[in-house]
Amino acid sequence: MFAARQALRSVPRQARLFSSSAPARTKVAVLGAGGGIGQPLSLLLKVEPLVSQLSLYDIRGAPGVAADVSHVDTNSTVRGFTADALDQALEGAEVVVIPAGVPRKPGMTRDDLFNTNASIVRDLATAVGRVAPTAKILIISNPVNSTVPIVAETLAKAGVFDPRRLFGVTTLDVVRAARFLSEVTGQDPASTPVTVVGGHSGVTIVPLLSQSSFGKGVQGETLSKLVHRIQYGGDEVVAAKDGAGSATLSMAYAATVFTNALLRAINGEENVVCPTFVRSPLFESQGVDFFSSNVELGPEGVKTIFPIGDLSAEEQALIDACLPELKKNIEKGKSFVNAA
Ligand code: NAD
Ligand code: LMR
């Protein structure tokens, strides 16, 4: 099931644990566990051996999801929490995954979700900062390019922001890139990993196909179509669901892949590398202080942020188009918190 875990390692690396002792298992909270992503994500995290306790919170439906998922015969324990029990849900959480918020309908951009989701994410971040200030926070709620800066500013206001512990989950772009490239080349997606950098919406999604052993052979119109499909893959699902939401199942899978990578790194596995949207120095001089690139994860969260490497002329043009849009999205998120 987890072939994409390998795909997330942009360069094949030898995984190795520091110690031979049993891994420390981690308490994980899901905020928005009753939703389209939250439900399958909760199930997948129930079968993740590195999770010890699963804390499921939503403003509606989480106790039911928890009761259901808790019957799965794995070692972890599961508790569901009602709308008024957010603080209890967060107590002792070491990893908090947030898919709370509304999804798109056809014709909407992710930025159109800002007015609803910004305050949802800010309020949840405030609670995490108060109750579980050292938790690693994984943001799924859109628009990711703005919600991640919202969380950063909210935690900074509370005096508990540590950039090593905040991640925008862009793994679905990586998963899509591998899958869509495999449809062009005929290879197994597990052997066609693609690093995707930038942000998580339209032109800010920049797949670096020239750095992929199979991707570099794709040229011309086939390349443009492939890049466009990776950048706008979310629209395919929104259109097919026809008003009933956006990607949920592939997103739950992608979030589980990223959570697993982080849990392995927390447990001391070395060379766990994947793209994620973090506070980043790479384009700070151009006013873009959050950016997704390959990041090595470690016990404290972000360990090393890797530069984006050599680009083709086409990719440089994509980066040039990405940066102004990303800057605008980031500033919008920061202003939302700081204007309040
Ligand atoms: P959904 O409507 O099915 O579920 C959202 C859930 O959030 C609901 O159960 C709702 O009750 C809950 N919720 C709302 N306010 C809350 C609050 N204050 N506290 C806790 N829970 C709250 O939506 P979905 O399809 O699961 O999508 C969720 C979000 O994820 C959307 O913003 C969507 O755009 C985003 N998304 C991101 C990616 C990505 O790649 N990062 C991919 C797919 C979807
Ligand atoms: C996706 O990429 O599928 C998500 O960001 C959801 C969306 O709105 O497209």
From TrEMBL:
Superkingdom: Eukaryota
UniProt-annotated binding residues for substrate: R104, R110, N142, R176
Catalytic function, reaction form: (S)-malate + NAD(+) = oxaloacetate + NADH + H(+)
Keyword field: NAD, Oxidoreductase, Tricarboxylic acid cycle
Quaternary structure and partners: Homodimer.
Enzyme class: oxidoreductase
The keyword NAD is annotated on this UniProt entry: yes
Record-annotated active site: H200
All copies of domain Lactate/malate dehydrogenase C-terminal, residue ranges: 170-337
GO biological process, one term: malate metabolic process
Domain Lactate/malate dehydrogenase N-terminal: 26-168
GO molecular function terms attached to this record: L-malate dehydrogenase (NAD+) activity
InterPro entries in the cross-refs: L-lactate/malate_DH, Lactate/malate_DH_C, Lactate/malate_DH_N, Lactate_DH/Glyco_Ohase_4_C, Malate_DH_AS, Malate_DH_type1, NAD(P)-bd_dom_sf
Name of the featured protein: Malate dehydrogenase
Family per record: Belongs to the LDH/MDH superfamily. MDH type 1 family.
PANTHER family assigned to the protein according to its UniProt record, in alphabetical order: MALATE AND LACTATE DEHYDROGENASE, MALATE DEHYDROGENASE, MITOCHONDRIAL
PROSITE patterns from the UniProt entry: MDH
Gene3D superfamilies attached to this UniProt entry: Lactate dehydrogenase/glycoside hydrolase, family 4, C-terminal, NAD(P)-binding Rossmann-like Domain
Entry GO terms, CC: mitochondrion
Annotated positions binding NAD(+): G32, A33, G34, G35, G36, I37, G38, D58, N117, I140, S141, N142, M251
Enzyme Commission identifier(s): 1.1.1.37
Record carries keyword Oxidoreductase: yes
